[in-house]
Amino acid sequence: MKPAIPAQGYTWKETPALNRSIWRTYKNDRHEVARILLEESHREVMKIIENHSEEDLFTKKKYKWTGTTSLAAYLISATSSHYVWALKLIKKCHRELSVLTI
């Protein structure tokens, strides 16, 4: 089954609009809620990873919907790559907030 990537109703060219939609949905959530949602999402992705063999994960073109790449490439972009991006953004926000409070 082909997953809705990047999300239902969006194409890759529409990623900025998708990001705005996600931001609007969660912008007022408290840090604790965001943390819980992140942990739940991470657990779900880890279950997907654990339910696949290394061959399933790393064989390019194994799944038609991945095109010329592997399932692992998609999972990496949905996990560690996003986590690195988010951590950089969080650190930037913390720096900016600390400058404003001085």
Protein model, in words:
This protein has one domain. It is 65% helix and 0% strand. Helix 4 runs parallel beside helix 5 (80-100). The protein starts with 14 loop residues before the first helix and ends with a helix. The protein is elongated, with a radius of gyration of 17 Å. The model has no long low-confidence stretch (mean pLDDT 89). It contains 5 helices and no strands. The chain is mainly alpha-helical and 102 residues long.
Give a quick summary of the entry.
This protein is mainly α.
What attributes does this structure have?
elongated, 0% strand, mainly alpha, 65% helix, 102 residues
Q: What string gives the helices and strands in order?
A: HHHHH
Helix content estimate: 55-70%
| Shape estimate | elongated
Number of strands: 0
Q: What's the rounded overall pLDDT mean?
A: 89
DSSP strand content: under 5%
Largest sheet: none
Number of helices: 5
Kindly name the structural category: mainly alpha
Count of individual domains: 1
Extract low-pLDDT stretches.
none
How widely separated are the two ends?
53 Å
The radius of gyration over CA amounts to: 17 Å
Topology:
Blueprint: H1 15-26, H2 31-50, H3 54-58, H4 71-78, H5 80-100
Helix pairs in contact: 4-5
